[in-house]
Design goal:
The complex is a heterodimer. By secondary structure, chain A is mostly helical. Chain A has 14 helices and no strands. The radius of gyration of chain A is 43 Å and the shape is rod-shaped. Chain B has a single domain, classed as Orthogonal Bundle (Histone, subunit A), CATH 1.10.20. In chain B, helix 5 packs antiparallel against helix 6. Chain B starts with 6 loop residues before the first helix and ends in a 6-residue tail after the last helix. The chains are: A mainly alpha, B mainly alpha. Chains A and B meet through helix 4, helix 9 and helix 10 of A and helix 1, helix 2 and helix 4 of B. Chain A: InterPro entries: CCAAT-binding_factor_CS, NFYA.
């Protein structure tokens, strides 16, 4: 009990005396030490959080919900446990703190969850809003060392990272590698997809370009099809219209023949009768055109 | 038999297990049709837009499916069913989509039951 009192007083004293910028790492260090201690101390710290304002309690529940999702991913669970987690989320939505604490006691947490727990305690003690973004960034910074090996193994310059709208607000701090903020629920899945895409890149290097077509025979068939104005394929009706074109050509030829006959100068009455007969023959068809020529001879 | 471009490349693909483009991506014509449904009638979609959306939706399908597959692997199951997909959407933070998809899945199963109980009569 005395140790708990001393550590709690240490936290508050560091908060009151330390400068604004330096206060955060000292909190992080002390919180990490508290985290290493027994579960009862973390429970006591949570009990201290309870008197906070309603808004803070909402934030608290929201972070617990995120934690449940991450714990669901990290641990091996059977189907009934998934149902339990869902019921737990329902209880979180009803903002029943006691069930939340009991459920947290029952779970075994890994390194990731511990870092998230440590980060969760930060926003509540400071009353000012300005502290929260910096603390959130510290939380992200804590998350990075746990995944540094995975990130180094998974990341490849050829793969395209999937970036979604982040839940946490990014900070404009000067770092060599500015981190990319993603939804915490999707973090593991994104890393898994990066590894898989890196493997695909290794396999599919010879075949990267998009093929213009998949099947040669279909391509040849498309090349043979008739195309209209603008390059589009002609449909059935347009093809029927195109069948009339030879008829037009024949008509133009017949017209040419008529011009040839009209060109002949004839001044006799007999010849004029023959011309009338030629016109009638032309109306009927081209087959009988030769007979008027015979009559003329 | 499918007429592929280059018989030798298909043999190489079959031997080394290379995933072909048509196996990795959705058909671009279907993507274009789905995009066209939400646009006004006189709108046009560039090929670059279709290709970009093709990459995005194919990656999203793989993203959700890998999450569902991981859950099945942990539970020693081989078949990924609709419930696993809905769970995966929820665990990845797409809760707004998981709930409508559960309702759709329920309605789909009811429709399948009706079809099984009342087979269509053939005249």
């Amino acid at each position: 009990m005395n140790c708990l009192c001393e550590k709690d007083s240490g936290l508050f004293s560091s908060h009151s005396t330390a400068p604004y910028v330096l206060g955060c790492p000292s909190w992080a260090t002390s919180e990490f030490e508290v985290q290493r201690s027994s579960m009862s101390r973390s429970l006591s710290s949570k009990v201290d959080v309870l008197p906070q304002q309603c808004h803070n309690s909402k934030t608290f529940n929201f972070q617990f919900q995120e934690q449940d999702a991450s714990s669901t991913k990290s641990t091996d669970q059977s189907y009934p446990e998934v149902g339990t987690v869902q019921s737990g989320q329902i209880s979180v939505q009803h903002s029943s703190t006691d069930s939340t604490l009991i459920r947290n006691e029952g779970k075994s947490m890994g390194c990731v969850i511990r870092s998230f727990m440590g980060s969760q305690d930060f926003p509540f003690p400071p009353p000012l809003l300005d502290h929260r973004p910096i603390l959130a960034h510290i939380a992200c910074h804590y998350a990075d060392p746990c995944y540094s090996g995975l990130v180094a193994a998974a990341y490849s310059p050829q793969s395209k990272p999937v970036e979604t709208a982040p839940v946490r607000i990014p900070l404009q701090l000067d770092f060599a590698e500015e981190p990319i903020y993603v939804n915490s629920k999707q973090y593991h899945a994104i890393l898994r997809r990066r590894q898989y895409r890196a493997k695909l890149e290794a396999l599919n290097k010879p075949i990267k370009d998009r093929k213009p077509y998949l099947h040669e025979s279909r391509h040849q068939h498309a090349l043979k099809r008739a195309r209209g104005a603008g390059g589009r394929f002609l449909n059935t009706k347009k093809q029927l219209q195109s069948n009339h074109t030879p008829g037009n050509i024949a008509e133009s030829k017949m017209h040419h023949i008529e011009n040839y006959r009209d060109g002949a100068d004839v001044s006799y009455a007999f010849n004029s009768d023959a011309r009338n007969m030629q016109n009638d023959a032309a109306d009927k068809g081209g087959g009988t055109t030769q007979q008027p020529l015979f009559v003329y001879m | 038999m499918m007429d592929n471009v280059g018989g030798s490349s298909s043999n190489i693909a079959e031997n080394s297990g290379i995933i072909r483009e048509q196996d990795r991506l959705l058909p671009i014509a279907n993507v274009g049709k789905i995009m066209k449904q939400i646009l006004p009638p006189n709108a046009k979609i560039s090929k670059e837009s279709k290709e970009t959306m093709q990459e995005c939706v194919s990656e999203f399908i793989s993203f959700v499916t890998s999450e569902a597959s991981e859950k099945c692997r942990k539970e020693r199951r081989k078949t990924v069913n609709g419930d696993d997909i809905c769970w995966a959407l929820g665990s990845l933070g797409f809760d707004d989509y998981a709930e409508p998809l559960r309702r759709y899945l329920q309605r789909y199963r009811e429709q399948e039951l009706d079809r099984a109980n009342n087979p269509p009569k053939r005249g």
